[in-house]
């Protein structure tokens, strides 16, 4: 099989290999980083892009879907854009490049480029697993990003918006956050694109020390021709609480991975995801969640709206290790499939080795409930508006859970704009 | 509830040895030489007196098989199988095919009696059994006897071994064989297509409701022998048939391969109910020996308003790899899958179903209960998909897992694929251990722990047991008791 893959390299695979050759001399990093990059690319050369035969990529056959890659250089430089919530601290990554350090109380900010040259980033360039293509490509290509440290006990009031803006070309960025004990903050990781076709990869690594309470919101609004491959890696120490929001409403070929390790007792993880899919978009949300110590909990709720010829996928794997007694993990994935040309695939997985646990998952796929529509119709609400109302209710429910009302309103507005434009 | 009491009694009556079907019958057999080659396939075909087309069909499958790779996606681990170290044909001496009961070796009859399967019709009639069941008994590679054939024939039902059917009803076999599970379907199904030795053939003509339950009892006796049976059931328009399948094997240290293919075809308004109690030897306490059960079972709801229902109780086998599926092709067709999979010791189970919705207004229901104990791993893997044109496809899936002890694993891997806006799919899964409250309640009332567990487990699997024909329900409950014995403490 490997032999075959080598012989029949796809144009996209070849394009990525060529891009690496063209870029390698400009990529930042000390000798260890350079050696690691070479090895990652050599592995990529061997393994290539994953096909549906690779279980983790069952619903996103990247080998077939990624037909070509754009030029290796970022396209025309896009500018910093207004943050989702006015008044947020903006940390922009424009065309894959760190812009300038900003002073934010309680937060130490440095460029990831410096970490690459300074020898502190080598280890994190390793992929998570054999089949971790996003980690592999990002590790080989990463140019810049942010290294952030949230000081112990600090609680910045404003939201930090990490902004990756990209119009065409390629960019590979990375965000690293170390949240020291007892800190609290809200981060918004935003990916915006333009009209030109682009390829971006993004890896965010967040490390929560004891008692940290963190909200991490991913808003993906790439352009209609963009390919976006992203990964969030999170580790939770004892009593840490992490809430991740993933809101997908852009891009042509999108894969967002969320990999969480709940490593400290008393820790809690929440995932809320809204996936709005229209046109020809292919969007895949893949969660791998490990409970490895006793007494931890997690809850995941994923809501999807599929229109037109879009295709969506959710894979969610919860692993409960032998030692992780008293784990409570609940996952649900609900999809509104509103078009006969659309498709939604769900694979919620449980892998359980401990006996004293409560784990459950639920998955539904359905059209709007005719009873609900009838209820509204009987009260004189025209069908079009009734449908829109029901769809909004279905997804916006998740935003109501955010403590920050202003942020919740700002996100709701974006979601509604999308729905108004597409439904 | 008397049935529950029965389970408790059963658990109590069992000694150290958990597998009561582990005896071996000393009987002389005809065997083909070990190994797999074109010659062996020709040998099997000749031995069965098959027509030329059948041999060609087998050889085509073999050729295909040589190019295929063993699948590795299931969550099971086992050393590589040496396909040349297996006997592909073993038959009790003197039985080239089914005969009248008087010609059957008494040793064989005794074996089946020991297994609780009477083969003499008068005994069945005189016996305590309340309803008649026609049995096809398959011993290693051949069917030794089929009971009640005459009575069935009077109703128009054909029930015989597949080897016989190939000779007597070649047109029917030719029409349907491989039409649900094609030769090239998967590694083990293709192997089966090349070397299958026997199995049952059932044909229920238009409008006939089969007057009794049909049953096949599979027994692997011979050492180093693989069993490759092939079952084909056809229910014509408006027909109904209920079919039961049971299996056991002697206790041995080495692993044995069982790779079967079952094909069901239901035409307009037909209904097939297929129930299995799978109790192959699961291996000993250290995980040594046991059957590798790699089976392809698929039903095709070809006609409108047809229905296929799978019910399985899986307690045996060292490794189970089995996904009884329904292709819901006809409009308004229905598929059902009820399963209890119990794993103990070092057993590995990767089982589930596929419901492929193709026709309009089709519906399916999946209830799966997995129970893991000891050092076993038990995986539910299921796929539900709605084709673009499958308007109003409806599925409900519930899969629950129960863990007993902290060295086992329970896994759930559902694939839910909707390509149609009017599809309505619901899936729920839970994993938990036996509720301490329930256990405490029983203990406080003086019920010993093991009995209490059997009681709670029986409650847990009740939904599935209810789907089994009466005769099987009792046996299944007994089996669950046996399989869980020794899992506490």
Short summary of the structure?
The complex is a heterodimer of chains A (423) and B (489). With 423 residues, chain A is an alpha/beta fold.
Q: Would you write up a description of this structure?
A:
The complex is a heterodimer of chains A (423) and B (489). Chain A has 9 helices and 19 strands. Chain A is α/β, with parallel strands linked by helices. Chain A folds into 2 domains: 366 residues, no CATH class; 55 residues, no CATH class. In chain A, the strands form 2 sheets. A 10-stranded mixed sheet of chain A has the order 2-1-5-7-9-11-13-15-17-19, with helices on one face. In chain A, a hairpin with a 2-residue loop joins strand 1 and strand 2. Chain A is globular, with a radius of gyration of 21 Å. The relative contact order of chain A is 0.09. The N terminus of chain A is likely disordered. Chain B has 489 residues and is of the alpha/beta class. Chain B has one domain. Helices cover 25% and strands 33% of the residues of chain B. Chain B contains 13 helices and 24 strands. Chain B is globular, with a radius of gyration of 22 Å. Chains A and B meet through strand 18 and strand 19 of A and strand 23 and strand 24 of B.
């Amino acid at each position: 099989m490997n032999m075959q893959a080598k012989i029949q390299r796809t144009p996209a695979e070849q394009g990525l290999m060529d891009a690496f050759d063209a870029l390698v001399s400009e990529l930042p990093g000390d000798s260890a980083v350079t050696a690691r990059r070479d090895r990652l690319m050599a592995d990529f050369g061997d393994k290539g892009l994953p096909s549906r035969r690779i279980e983790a990529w069952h619903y996103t056959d990247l080998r077939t879907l990624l037909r070509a890659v754009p030029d290796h250089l970022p396209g025309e430089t896009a500018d910093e854009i207004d943050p989702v919530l006015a008044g947020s601290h903006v940390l922009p990554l424009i065309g894959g490049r760190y812009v300038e350090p900003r002073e934010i109380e309680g937060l130490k900010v440095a460029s990831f480029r410096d970490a690459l040259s300074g020898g502190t980033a080598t280890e994190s360039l390793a992929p998570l697993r054999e089949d971790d293509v996003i980690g592999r490509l990002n590790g080989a290509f990463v140019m810049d990003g942010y290294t952030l440290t949230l000081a112990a006990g600090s609680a910045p009031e404003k939201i930090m918006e990490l902004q990756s803006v990209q119009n065409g070309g390629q960019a590979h960025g990375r965000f690293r956050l170390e949240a020291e004990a007892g800190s609290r903050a809200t981060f918004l990781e935003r990916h915006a694109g333009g009209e030109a076709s682009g390829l971006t990869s993004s890896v965010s690594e967040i490390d929560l020390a004891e008692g940290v309470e963190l909200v991490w919101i991913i808003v993906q609004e790439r352009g209609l021709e963009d390919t976006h491959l992203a990964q969030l890696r999170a580790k939770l120490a004892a009593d840490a609480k992490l809430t991740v929001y993933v809101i997908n409403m852009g891009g042509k070929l999108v894969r967002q991975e969320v990999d969480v390790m709940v490593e400290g007792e008393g820790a809690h993880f929440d995932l809320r995801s809204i996936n709005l899919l229209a046109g020809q978009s292919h969007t895949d949300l893949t969660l791998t969640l490990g409970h490895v110590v006793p007494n931890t909990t997690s809850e995941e709720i994923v809501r999807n709206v599929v229109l037109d010829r879009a295709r969506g996928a959710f894979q969610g794997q919860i692993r409960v290790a032998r030692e992780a007694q008293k784990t409570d993990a609940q996952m649900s994935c609900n999809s509104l499939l509103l078009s006969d040309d659309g498709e939604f695939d769900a694979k919620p997985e449980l892998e359980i080795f401990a006996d004293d646990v409560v784990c459950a998952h639920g998955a539904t796929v359905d059209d709007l409930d005719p009873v609900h529509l009838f209820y509204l119709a009987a009260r004189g609400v025209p069908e079009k508006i009734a449908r829109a109302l029901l769809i909004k209710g279905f997804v916006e429910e998740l935003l109501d859970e955010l403590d920050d009302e202003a942020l919740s309103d700002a996100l709701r507005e974006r979601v509604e704009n999308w729905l108004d434009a597409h439904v | 509830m008397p049935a529950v009491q029965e389970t408790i009694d059963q658990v109590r009556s069992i000694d150290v040895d958990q597998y009561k079907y582990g005896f071996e019958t000393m009987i002389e057999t005809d065997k083909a030489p070990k190994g797999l080659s074109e010659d062996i396939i020709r040998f099997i075909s000749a031995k069965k007196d098959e027509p030329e087309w059948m041999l060609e069909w087998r050889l085509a499958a073999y050729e295909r098989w040589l190019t295929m790779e063993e699948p590795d996606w299931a969550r099971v681990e086992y050393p590589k199988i040496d396909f040349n170290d297996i006997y592909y044909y073993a038959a009790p001496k003197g039985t080239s095919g089914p005969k009248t009961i008087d010609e059957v070796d008494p040793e064989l009859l005794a074996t089946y009696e020991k297994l609780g399967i009477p083969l003499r019709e008068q005994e069945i009639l005189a016996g305590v059994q309340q309803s008649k069941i026609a049995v096809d008994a398959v011993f290693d590679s051949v069917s030794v006897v089929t009971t009640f054939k005459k009575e069935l024939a009077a109703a128009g039902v054909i029930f015989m071994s597949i080897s016989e059917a190939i000779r007597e009803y070649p047109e029917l076999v030719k029409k349907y064989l491989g039409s649900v599970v094609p030769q090239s379907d998967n590694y083990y199904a293709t192997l089966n297509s090349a070397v299958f030795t026997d199995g049952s053939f059932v044909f229920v003509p238009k409008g006939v409701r089969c007057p009794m339950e049909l049953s096949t009892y599979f027994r692997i006796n011979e050492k180093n022998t693989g069993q490759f049976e092939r079952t084909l059931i056809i229910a014509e328009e408006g027909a109904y048939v209920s079919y039961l399948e049971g299996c056991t094997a002697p206790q041995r240290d080495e692993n044995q391969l069982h790779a079967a293919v079952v094909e069901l075809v239901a035409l307009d308004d037909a209904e097939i109910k297929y129930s299995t109690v799978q109790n192959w030897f699961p291996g000993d306490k250290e995980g040594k020996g046991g059957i590798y059960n790699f089976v392809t079972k698929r039903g095709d709801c070809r006609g409108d308003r047809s229905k296929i229902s799978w019910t399985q109780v899986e307690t045996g086998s060292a490794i189970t790899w089995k996904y009884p599926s329904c292709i819901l092709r006809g409009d308004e067709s229905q598929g059902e899958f009820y399963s209890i999979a119990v794993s103990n010791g070092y057993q590995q189970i990767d089982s589930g179903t596929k419901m492929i919705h193709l026709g309009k207004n089709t519906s399916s229901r999946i209830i799966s209960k997995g129970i893991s104990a000891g050092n076993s791993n038990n995986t539910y893997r299921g796929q539900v998909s709605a084709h673009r044109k499958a308007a109003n496809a409806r599925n409900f899936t519930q899969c629950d897992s129960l863990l007993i002890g902290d060295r086992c694993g329970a896994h759930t891997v559902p694939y839910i694929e909707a390509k149609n806006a009017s599809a309505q799919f619901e899936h729920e899964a839970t994993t938990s251990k036996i509720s301490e409250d329930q256990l405490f309640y029983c203990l406080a009332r003086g019920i010993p722990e093991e009995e209490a567990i059997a009681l709670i487990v029986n409650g847990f699997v009740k939904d599935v047991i209810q789907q089994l024909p009466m005769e099987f329900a009792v046996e299944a409950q007994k089996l669950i008791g046996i399989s869980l014995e020794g899992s506490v403490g």
